[in-house]
C-alpha cells in the first residue's frame, strides 16, 4: 500500500504532498524534510529504492523515487508493493503531467495544484493504485475538463441573468 506521495524540488521545497496514512501537520513536515535528506544525498547512478526513514516506518517501508530535472517524485510504500511497479507508476504520473501541461515544470505544480491532485487521484486513491493506462487517465481528464467548461458557461449565464434582474429592478 502507498503511504505517501511527495514531490519536492532540488532545494527541498514541497510541491505536492499526499498522505494516505494519518500524520499530524508537524509530523508531515518532518517526514518531508527527512525524505528529502535521504533522497537528495544519493548519487544519480544508484538504485532508486531505499528503506524508509525513521519517521515513515523504518525498514518496513520503502522510498521509491525518480529525479526529473528539478523535481523529485517520491512514493513511500510498504513491503507489499513492487518496486518496479511503483517506478512504472511514477513514470505514468510524470508522462501524464507532461501531456496535460505540455512539458510539465515546477511552476505547473504550483499554479495548477487542483489539476495535479485530480490527475494523481486518477492514478491512486486511498493508497491503492487505480489506473496505470495513460490513455484511460487522459480520457478521464479530458472528460473532467469538458464538464468544467460546461459548468463555467452555465455559471456565467446565471451571473448574467441575475445581473439583468438586479439592473431592471422591480417593474
What does this structure look like?
This protein is an alpha+beta fold and 171 residues long. The chain has a single domain, classed as Beta-Lactamase. It contains five helices and seven strands; from the N terminus they run E-E-H-E-E-E-H-H-H-E-E-H. The strands form two sheets. A five-stranded antiparallel β-sheet has the order 2-1-5-4-3, sandwiched between helices. Strands 6-7 form a two-stranded antiparallel ribbon. The longest helix is centred in the last third of the chain and has 35 residues. The radius of gyration is 20 Å and the shape is globular.
What does the main sheet amount to?
5 strands, antiparallel
Helix and strand sequence: EEHEEEHHHEEH
Overall outline: globular
> Which CATH architecture would you pick?
2-Layer Sandwich
Predict the CATH topology: Beta-Lactamase
Strand arrangement across the biggest beta sheet? 2-1-5-4-3
- Going by helix content, strand content and strand pairing, the class is alpha+beta
State the low-pLDDT regions, or none.
Answer: none
What is the terminal separation in angstroms? 64 Å
Counted by DSSP, the helix tally is: 5
Average of per-residue pLDDT values: 86
Q: Can you count the beta strands?
A: 7
What is the percentage of strand-forming residues? 15-25%
Q: Quaternary arrangement of the chains shown?
A: single chain
Which CATH C-level class is it? Answer: Alpha Beta
Radius of gyration equals: 20 Å
As a percent range, the share of helical residues equals 40-55%
Amino acid at each position: 500500500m502507498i503511504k505517501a506521495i511527495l514531490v519536492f524540488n532540488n532545494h527541498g521545497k514541497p510541491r505536492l504532498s499526499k498522505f494516505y496514512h494519518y500524520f499530524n501537520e508537524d509530523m508531515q513536515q518532518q517526514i518531508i524534510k527527512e525524505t528529502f535528506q535521504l533522497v537528495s544525498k544519493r548519487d544519480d547512478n544508484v538504485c532508486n529504492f531505499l528503506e524508509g526513514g525513521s519517521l515513515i516506518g523504518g525498514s518496513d517501508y520503502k522510498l521509491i523515487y525518480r529525479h526529473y530535472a528539478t523535481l523529485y517524485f517520491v512514493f513511500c510504500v510498504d513491503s507489499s508493493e513492487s518496486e518496479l511497479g511503483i517506478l512504472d507508476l511514477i513514470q505514468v504520473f510524470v508522462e501524464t503531467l507532461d501531456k496535460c501541461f505540455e512539458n510539465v515544470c515546477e511552476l505547473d505544480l504550483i499554479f495548477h495544484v487542483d489539476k495535479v491532485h485530480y490527475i494523481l487521484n486518477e492514478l491512486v486513491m486511498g493508497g491503492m493504485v487505480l489506473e496505470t493506462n495513460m490513455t484511460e487517465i487522459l480520457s478521464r481528464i479530458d472528460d473532467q475538463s469538458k464538464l468544467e467548461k460546461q459548468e463555467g458557461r452555465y455559471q456565467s449565464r446565471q451571473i448574467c441573468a441575475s445581473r439583468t434582474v438586479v439592473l431592471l429592478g422591480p417593474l
